[in-house]
Amino acid sequence: MSIRAARRTAGIRYANREVVQLAEEAQRRGRKLLNLNIGDPNIFGFRTPECIQEAMIRAIRENHNGYSHSSGLAEARAAIRRQAESRGLRKVQEVLVTNGGSEAIDMALSALVNSGDNVLLPAPGYPLYAALLSRLEAETRRYRLDESNNWQPDIEHMAEQIDGRTRAIVLINPNNPTGCVYSRETIEAVIDLCRGHKLVLISDEIYDRILFNGHEHVPSASLADDVCIVTINGLSKNYIAPGLRCGWSITSGPAGLCEDYLQGMRKLSRVRLSAGHPQQHAIAPALLGAQEHLPPLCDILSRRARFCAERLNAIEGVQCVEPQGAFYAFPSLQIAGRDEDFVRELILETGVIVVQGSGFGLQGQPSYFRIVTLPGDEVLAEAFDRIEDFLGSWRRRHPFTEEAAAPAL
Ligand SMILES: Cc1ncc(COP(=O)(O)O)c(C=O)c1O
Predict the structure, then answer these.
(1) What confidence tier does 404 reach under pLDDT thresholds 50, 70, 90?
(2) What is the atom index within ligand 1 of the atom nearest the CA of 103?
(3) Ligand 1 neighbour 391 (Cβ under 6 A)
(4) Is the CB of 238 under 6 A from ligand 1?
(5) C-alpha–C-alpha distance, residues 305 and 297, integer Å
(6) Are residues 146 and 104 in the same domain?
(7) What is the per-residue pLDDT across 184-205, written as a single tens digit (0 to 9) for each?
(8) Is 19 within a domain?
(9) If you average pLDDT over every residue of the chain, what do you get?
(10) Average pLDDT over residues 76-104
(11) Ligand 1 mutation target, pool 181, 206, 374, most atoms within 8 A of CB
């Protein structure tokens, strides 16, 4: 008899990585794989800025390979605070450096929720949050992002989800998987809800420098100093270094309101000793440096985002809101059948790897899938050709009926 995994792992899903098994199967069948599933800029040829590489190598050579302070290296935390305050974040109480943004999210949730509490997550939204809540035996409640309004959060729907066990609202801005950047009014409305219901706002801003066509990012914590806001960020996306596992949380708001919660987060940071140390030496040079990598990065990605949206919208029955930032697009599909079956067959038959919308918390109709917009133009063009052909064959095998078109949420 095999050893039983704990019950708390049973509800954990992470579709982004689960499709990899299907990709391996497609490869065994001789398909040429086109990876449109991984939000990792480095595997698509984008390079970590030199100043980060050099600072990290220097730190290793200088033997900064022991543990750091549990909260993070003093210079790194000072640089994060300085950048945060220069972007208008108000009443910053604490900066904690973590092993990627992922660990910052883990600490922010683990220090907050008890079993049976609930947290509001976007639908669609990055799946780590729901996986962690499942592990914490807490409930995920989904609020709708409105496709017809450029994927902005539906504030009324959000308000309807709140009850006495709600502890936090998660905003992902710019959003993964839609690429939407939220308006100041939207963020203010979310802050009002947090203020009124004494909720923590967890504001995941890990793509906040990857913006297109004049879209501006408004940091949530720049709009209020009377609400506890945990801002998540890191080097992974804006600084093209996800493998360095270097992230942080910035907790802001009134000292008294945040203090107990912060003590919980600090305890969690102490028991895991420290975040990876040499890479923390790259934080100050990265944040305080010239940011020269950003204009060309945003330029290429905005052109690719437009190309993806235009090409997808040219396929019959597919609609795609043009992303305003980050490196994803999230088209909808008029198809019969479950999105995960569609994606499974798409991968096995064509080798194009995408992630189904249900992996981001959107069930039912219409169906969605997420692509990453990081690959070069030729790969994207080839992928869309294969998707278009496959869609035709799927429709012939699974005719679409009108009753299948009921909305998901
Ligand atoms: C919205 C969002 N938050 C957090 C993360 C995790 O970031 P990290 O690689 O720094 O752990 C990701 C990674 O894709 C993400 O998309």
Answers:
(1) low
(2) 11
(3) no
(4) no
(5) 12
(6) yes
(7) 999 999 999 999 999 999 999 9
(8) yes
(9) 94
(10) 97
(11) 206
Q: How remote is the C-alpha of 101 from its chain's centroid?
A: 9
In a domain, 236, yes or no: yes
Distance set, CA 394 to CA 25, 201, 359, 380, 398 (Å): 20, 42, 20, 20, 6
Cα–Cα distances (Å) from 174 to 58, 59, 152, 203, 220, in that order, read: 33, 32, 10, 10, 12
Ligand 1 centre distance from Cα of residue 198 (Å) = 26
State the residue for tokens 């008294």. Answer: 256
Alpha helices per DSSP H over 351-376: none
Which one of 261, 288, 315 terminates a domain? 288
Helix 377-397 / helix 294-313 crossing angle, nearest 10 deg: 30
Phi, psi for residue 264 in degrees, rounded to 5: -60, -45
The CATH number given to whatever domain includes residue 366 is: 3.90.1150.10
Q: What is the pLDDT of residues 206-225, one digit of tens each?
A: 999 999 999 999 999 999 99
The number of domains in the chain is 2
Structure-block tokens of residue 158 = 């959000």
> Does the Cβ of 278 fall within 6 Å of ligand 1?
no
Of 288, 318, 345, the residue at which a domain comes to its end is 288
Residue 14 predicted with pLDDT over 90: no
